[in-house]
Amino acid sequence: MSLQMRYYGDPILRQHAKPIDHVTEEIVLLARDMIEVMQKQNGIGLAAPQVGVALRIFVTTVYPDQEDGESTYGEPRVFINPVISHPSADLVEMSEGCLSIPGVSEFVWRPESIEFEAMDLEGNIIKERISGFWARVCMHEIDHLNGVLYVDRIKGKVRNKLEPILRRIKKEHYE
After folding, report:
1. Per-domain residue ranges for the chain?
2. Phi/psi of residue 63, each to 5°?
3. Choosing from 141, 163, 172, 175, which is the catalytic residue?
């Protein structure tokens, strides 16, 4: 499967991705190809819509925050049909970027912690309370699966400042 990055302005980035019924060889190959694209792009996470596939799957190299609050990076992992719930009332602002919006990063407010549930490639269910950067990465990728981009969470003057940049990205790739 030859996957291509999709950029701001591509309609697939605004679609709600479909759940995966069960792990097939095709899903395993999709995950492998997504990891390859993510690594080639020097990313830390990638959702299927970012490569033109409207399925609920994302890959990442980020691991849960350690006791000292730091996230670690390691071998890529795959999450299928991820769901988040019970966001904390505490919000944290942090800079985010996105492979589908190259060269842009801005501060976004997100809950400090969430409940996270997903399936791995072996069909195992992962369910845990997660926080910090790891939670932010999951929320960012799940946003992609719901047709939401991180820039949608930016309002006011900062969003107005981004508009010409977003129009340029769309024009470069799709007009």
Report:
1. 11-174
2. -115, 160
3. 141
